[in-house]
Amino acid sequence: MNPLYPVVAERAVYRCEYCHAPEIVFNFPFEVEHIIPQSRGGTNDLGNLALACHACNLFKSDFETGRDEESHTEAALFHPRIDTWEQHFRVDIERAEILGITSAGRATVARLQMNRPRQLTARQRWIQLGVFP
After folding, report:
1. Tens of pLDDT, residues 36-75
2. pLDDT digits (tens, 9 = 90+) for 74-125
3. What is the secondary structure of the chain as a DSSP string?
């Protein structure tokens, strides 16, 4: 486990900083993710680290941009240390979907595949349990 996990997890209130999945319903800790990938010059500085669920970390990989299908442009992904989640995303409780409301939000939802069927099913359960959003 990353030695900075306790600090990063507490700062994130034990939620994935991308999809807001609650770590408490998983049987393993979330991952400390490099916002700017180390392969692209990112550091281990706390300002470059985010808490990410396995799925978001896997799909983000070493990408820093994604496709915004509304504007048909490549856009920077949501940056948890700079951006505010609520300014870029909203949750459709009825459909359990995360909706991007900015170019960065839409690009992040698409790149991280936040609304895959399994994610929607899990989110519906989390909503029922009162742990999401």
Report:
1. 999 999 999 999 999 999 999 999 999 999 999 999 999 9
2. 999 999 999 999 999 999 999 999 999 999 999 999 999 999 999 999 999 9
3. --TTHHHHHHHTTTB-TTT--BGGGSSS--EEEESS-GGGT--SSGGGEEEE-HHHHHHHTT--EEEETTTTEEEEPP-TTTS-HHHHEEEETTTTEEEE-SHHHHHHHHHTTTT-HHHHHHHHHHHHHT---
Tokens found for residue 105: 């939000």
CA distances from 1 to 5, 23, 80, 101 (A): 7, 15, 21, 34
Report the alpha-carbon distance of residue 114 to residue 133 in Å, rounded: 14
